[in-house]
Write a structure and sequence with these properties.
The structure holds two protein chains of two kinds. Chain A is of the alpha+beta class. Chain A is 18% helix and 25% strand. The chains are: A alpha+beta, B alpha+beta.
Chain lengths: 330, 225
């Protein structure tokens, strides 16, 4: 396919680069991993196949061959010609069709998976783009107009879906069914995000601990794939604390001395040295990934046990999607 | 040793509470043992100064009870029996550095803070025998222990937005090298042409936790050659 317009911060991403944090290499990967996983399943790919992540504004792509794709994530008004393209289901676009996006209706990040996945080299075990160090994905950078992207061969199940659509006319054809809404996160512009208290939670005073779970936090424009900087109640420690740098993970909420929380996201550093007030649970990371500057979020407290149960439940749902698609109506 | 959860898919092994050679030895020995004996469902381990994170896929860790309980059980069992690790006494990696000038804009700041001349700072820095306590911050960035306290220097009050790749710097009681251009708050005293991070290689880093490092002063003429 050809990139006619790149959209905003459109990068090739998979589920990240594991095993190299000890070399200082961030995990990266899709910010809303659940959206990419489901999009991949819809087009018969392994969940980890390389697709596109874009931010607020999607790319304009011209298909040079018949292409099976799926759009998930934030609602970004995808269209081919002047017809809107349905989301969360497989769509067959015919050679010569041009996919574009009109406006961001809700959410912040859109995902496009293509049957076969992008045929870009694996670097350190991932096809995802590491923007800061400039490797992975397409030459280690965001897409530009004029780029060409190639897909790897489609799976048998993608081929079956494609055959079931192929007899119908039109520049594009979508399946009449879509993936169940429960398979995707419940996005909201002002989400409540569940948090396990962090190791330094008790080092913040009572009023701060209450404010953390009561007040709203505004997403500032200084938020990106590395971390979301929040603006909310000033969080201060009972007494100063300068912890030794320790490993962090996605969702770690750090509080630097000025008192404004930062939620670490996909492109985070492997270690951090600020006090940790909390830890966003894995299943709620997509909710943050789909907020943008100016949105507000709130935190609610859960236990580690609840977080683990929610994780198991989500994986069960995705497994049901996977099983369901194996027997999808054709 | 203390095990605590790090979110719902990782745990943290705490092996000390200060940055020193003894703690580093414990971390290095435990990390090597974990690397050699990964348990089912383990994704990766990430050693730091006093801690090691172990990331796991909660559904794949065998046993009964919560995922954290299962993973901690396996890690405790593993760490009950960590062989003493002779720290690698292989020859140190030599990193040639062109100190001062536009390549080391903060050399004079460090000298003033220490109350000695810039030349003495260079001599002391290049005479040191360093050990990589941890790789982090950015791809391949080594946090080096063993800095002579006379030339320790506070971080800049306002970090630079872009520190050039190869910059050799001092931050507090540590020294290090910025492998790629990133923002950074350490005092830059020189630059090397040695590439510490090569994503096309596996492993992608020139030096690893536990390695020894020495710096050698090189002239500007040699640097430009």
């Amino acid at each position: 396919m050809k990139v006619l317009k790149p959209g905003l911060l459109t990068t090739v991403q998979d589920l990240g680069r594991h095993g190299y944090q000890r070399d200082g290499v961030s995990v990266g990967g899709a910010m809303d991993a659940q959206a990419l996983r489901v999009a991949n399943l819809l087009v018969g790919n392994p969940e980890n196949a390389a697709g596109l992540e874009f931010t607020l504004l999607g790319p304009t792509l011209e298909f040079t061959g018949d292409t099976l794709f799926a759009v998930t994530g934030g609602h970004m008004s995808p269209r081919i010609g002047d017809r809107s393209v349905p989301e969360a289901r497989p769509v067959l676009a015919r050679a010569g069709a041009t996919l574009s996006f009109k406006e961001c209706v809700s959410g912040a990040r859109g995902y496009l998976a293509f049957a076969g996945g992008f045929d870009v080299p694996e670097v350190l075990g991932s096809r995802g783009t590491h923007l800061r160090a400039g490797f992975g994905g397409l030459d280690g950078r965001a897409l530009r107009a004029g780029d060409t992207l190639r897909l790897a061969p489609r799976s048998d199940s993608a081929e079956r879906v494609l055959q079931s659509l192929a007899h119908r006319p039109g520049t594009f054809v979508a399946t009449p069914w879509s993936v169940s809404a429960s398979a995707l996160p419940r996005y909201a512009a002002s989400p409540t995000v569940r948090v396990i208290p962090g190791i330094h939670f008790a080092r913040f005073d009572d009023a701060n601990r209450r404010a953390f779970f009561q007040d709203g936090f505004r997403i500032t424009p200084q938020s990106d794939r590395m971390g979301y900087r929040l603006e909310g109640p000033l969080l201060s420690l009972i007494e100063p604390l300068e912890p030794i740098s320790e490993p962090v993970c996605a969702g770690t909420i750090q509080v630097p001395p000025e008192g404004q929380a930062i939620v670490l996201m996909a492109d985070r550093q492997s270690a951090g040295g600020y006090p940790r007030i909390g830890q966003v649970i894995t299943v709620d990371l997509p909710l943050i990934a789909q907020t943008k500057a100016g949105d507000t979020l709130r935190f609610s407290e859960v236990s580690l046990e609840q977080a683990e149960e929610l994780y198991v439940e989500r994986e069960r749902t995705i497994e049901q999607v996977r099983q369901g698609l194996l027997h999808a109506p054709h | 040793m203390i095990l605590e959860p790090l979110g719902d898919s990782a745990l943290l092994i705490r092996l000390g509470d200060q940055i020193d050679e003894a703690t580093h030895r414990r971390v290095a020995a435990a990390a090597a043992h974990i690397a050699a004996h990964p348990f089912p469902g383990m994704i990766e381990h990430v050693p730091a100064f006093t801690t090691i994170a172990v990331h796991y896929e909660p559904l794949r860790v065998p046993g009964t009870g919560s995922a954290f309980a299962r993973a901690s059980g396996l890690v405790s069992k593993l760490l009950a029996d960590v062989p003493d690790l002779a720290l690698a006494e292989s020859p140190p990696v030599e990193i040639p550095v062109c100190y001062g000038g536009d390549l080391g804009p903060d050399l004079d700041v460090v000298a003033q803070h220490a109350g000695i001349t810039a030349d003495e700072v260079v001599r002391i820095h290049a005479a040191g025998d360093y050990r990589v306590y941890m790789i982090g911050f950015s791809p391949g960035f080594p946090f080096l222990g063993g800095l002579d306290e006379r030339i320790s220097a506070p971080r800049r009050s306002s970090p630079r937005l872009a520190v050039p790749a190869g910059s050799v710097a001092i931050g507090g009681k540590q020294t290090g090298v910025y492998p790629i251009e990133t923002p950074g708050g350490w005092q830059i005293i020189g630059r090397t042409k040695t590439r510490l991070f090569r994503p096309d290689l596996s492993p992608p880093t020139l030096i690893h936790m536990g390695a020894r490092v020495r710096f050698r002063a090189m002239s500007r003429v040699e640097f430009d050659r």
